[in-house]
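FW: tagging you since you asked about this chain on Friday. Here's the raw sequence from the shared folder, copied in full. Didn't touch anything.
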Amino acid sequence: MPNKITRRAALASGLAVGAASCASSPKMTPYVSASEAATGIFAHGVASGDPAATSVVIWTRIAPPAEGSRALVNWEIASDESFTEIVAKGDAPTGMHRDWTVKALATGLAPGSTYYYRFTIGDASSPTGRTKTLPEGAIEQARFAVISCSNYPFGFFNVYDLISRQDDLDAVVHLGDYIYEYSREGYGGETGAALGRDHEPPNECITLDDYRRRHAQYKADPASQAMHAKNPLIAIWDDHETSNNSWKDGAQNHDPETEGDWEARRRAALQAYYEWLPVREPEMAPEAFFRSFSYGDLLTIAALETRLMARARQFEYTEIIPTLKTAEDIETFKTQILWDETREMLGAAQLDYFDRVWRNSVAAGQPWRLVANQIIMAKMAAPDLTEYVTEEDIISLEQQWDQARAFVESSALGLPVNLDAWDGYPAARERFYDMVNEAGGGGMIVVTGDTHTWWANDLTDKSGKQMGVELGTHSVTSPSPYRTEFLGGKGAEYALLTNRENEDIRFLSGDYHGFIDLTITREAATAAFRAVDTIESRNYNAFVHASFEIARTDGGAEFTDADGLGFKENYLF
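HL: got it, structure written out here
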C-alpha cells in the first residue's frame, strides 16, 4: 500500500490548492442514447430484480383498460430469446388498486442462469427482458454496475444507456434516489425546463397519486427502459424516494403544517415504490427494506436500509453552530453529543440480521462481503474553507443548500463534512464495525451513493483499524458539490483540499456522471469509474475516469493500485 502520510506531507507544503492535474487523455467511445421508448399497452417497459438462486421478480405495467378496475396479465420466462424453451409461466392480477403495475415471482429456475421473459394480455405483448439468477457453488468472478441518484430534470439518462450496453453484468446495484420528489420549481427545475425534462406532476410529491405519476415518468424514459430490460436490479432506497433527508419520524423536506402527516406521506411513497420497482416486499414492515444476496462461494451482498426504519433525526449545522460558543462547547459536541449511543442508524433488528448474514458468509468460505449502502461511511472532517470561499460563493451556494453559510463559517472547527452521513452517527457506525469484527472474514467493500461524487476511501474504526474500503459512485444526473464549476469554479480545489486533510479519503472527484463497473474475483477486485462526458444531449462519449485495484485482507480489504489519476491526485492517493 502507498505510504499515504508521507505523500500527504510532501504535497501539503506545495498545495496552495490548485486544480487537479489531468491524467493522460482517456479513450472515448461515442454513443447515441436510446431514443425510442416502448409504446402501446406496455409503454413503461419491463424490469426484473431481487434475484435468488431459483427465482426472480419480473415487472411491467399495462395501460389502464377502457373498462373495468382489474385485469389478469400472462407472463412467461424462457431459457432462449426466441421463447422456444419455456421454463415457467403464469398469470398475475393487476388493477387500479396497484396502479396497473404487474409483479410476478418466477420460480423453479436454475441457479446462475440467464433467462428471457415477457408479458401478454389479449393480443398485446411486452418488450422482452433479460435476467439472471444467483449462482450456487464455485464461481470465479461476479460483475456489477453500481449507480445512484437519477434526477430526471437534471439531464438525460445516458449513464443508464451505457449500462444497457454491457453484456456480462450479473446485476445492476442501485443505491437510492431512484426518483426525486421535488416540484418543477425545486431542485433541478431550471435545468429541466431548459432540456424539456420537466417533472411530472409539476408539484412536489406528497400523495400516492403524486408518487405514482413520478415513478411512471421515470419508467417511461427510454434509457431507463433499456437498462432495466437488460439486467436484474438490486435496489435500495435513500431519501428522495420519500423526501429529502428523511429519518424515522420525518424529513427535512417535509412540513407537517403545509404537507400533512409524515406517516401518510411515507406510506404513500413506499406503496408507489413497491408497485413500480421489481423488488420483493418485506414481511416485517414496509420500511424494513434490508436483505442479502449470495453469489456462490465468492461473495454476499448486504443491502442496508439507513433511512426509515431506525435512523435518528440528523443534526443540522444551522441548529448546531449557534450552540458552539467556546472551545469546550466544540469538544463536548465532538466527543459526547455526536457520539450519543442512543442515536441509531440501522437499529437492533437490522444489525442482528446482518450479523447472521455475515457469519453465514464467513462460514461458507466466501472471501468477500459487498455492502450496498446509501451514505458515505468513511470518516471525513471538513477542511477549513474560510480563506478560500468568498461571500459571493456563499450566497450562490445558499441557493442550493440552506446550511451553506453555517457550514463554511464552522469549517475551521474540524467537524464532519456531512452530518446526514455515517459521520453524524459515529456510535452506530462503531456498532456496525463491531459486528463485522466479531463475525470475522475480512474482505469488506462498501459501495455508496448519495453524494454525486466519485470516492475511493479507506474505512477505519475508532481505534484506526482498517475495516475495508469504500467506493462511492457519481450520479446518473444529479450535480456534485465537488464538480469543477462549483463554488465559483473552485470545486476541484475543494476536492483536493478535502482529500489532503482526511487520511481515509484516497480519491474524490465531482466531474463526470457515471457508474462503478465492479468486478470481483477470489483474490482481488477491480473498480472502473465509467463516465459519460455529457448529460445535456443524447449524444455522448463514454470513458474510464479512474480505476482502482483492491486486494482482500484478513482485516478487511485495501487499495493496491490506481490508474487515471492526475499528478496531485496520485500524491494524495
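FW: The chain has one domain: 4-32+135-212+223-282+291-572.
HL: agreed, and Confidence is low (pLDDT under 50) at residues 1-21.
FW: great, closing this out.
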